[in-house]
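Teaching assistant's notes for section 4

Start the section by putting this record on the projector. Ask students to predict, before seeing the second block, whether Glycosyltransferase family 2 protein will look compact or extended. Collect guesses on the board.
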Amino acid sequence: MTALSIVIPVFNERDNIAPLVHEVVRHLRGRVQFEIVCVDDRSDDDTREVLAALRAEVPELRAFAHAARCGQSAAIRSGVRHALAPWIATLDGDGQNDPADIPKLLDARDAAEAEVKLFAGWRVSRQDSGSKRWASRWANRIRQWLLRDNTPDTGCGIKLFERAAFLDLPYFDHMHRYLPALMQRAGWKTVSVPVSHRARGAGQSKYTNVGRALVGVRDLLGVSWLIQRSHVVVTDEIPAPRPVEQGR
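Reveal the predicted structure now:
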């Protein structure tokens, strides 16, 4: 039985995806029954062809492609829906997340209580430009002030979560950046786990600081609205009355 699915959303990462897939195999083969689920979000380069060739080399790999570009959150959700395992680990397709941290997340899960459904990577030493680190620092402060999710880093691509809990969350574009708040809204607990971070090996980032900020404001307000309008509902089954014993 597949115990873990590694979901990797990919867009124009022809030079990064093969080394990343082989790294995952190196760190997980022999430790856990796993699969790798890559979802190509309609790349402009030959990422899809690279994935097809990889399938002949890596038996654990399954690959899917969107018919139209839908964004990173949609690619993650597509991968989770196709995944066969009850637990999901995610990695960004650019190779900046280190697959060697996945066992660390698994160890954190095994030591945690059952109510923890999300283990979020926390990049304690980011290998991004100064402007990116500055923008992310301020975005995290604003998010924590507004959502109070007690999470130092929600933009980290490496995460481990329960598949059923994820699929029960409301879906919207860019939701992957707010998973801790959404999980907590659903009544689950979340834990942040320090992980490493690497410089991009090839290609370029798909986001700009300005573009991310403009979308982020709208998303923050939307998630805040969801939290304010939500209730954690706990239900108990009503037992049938005990049968009355005859003759008493």
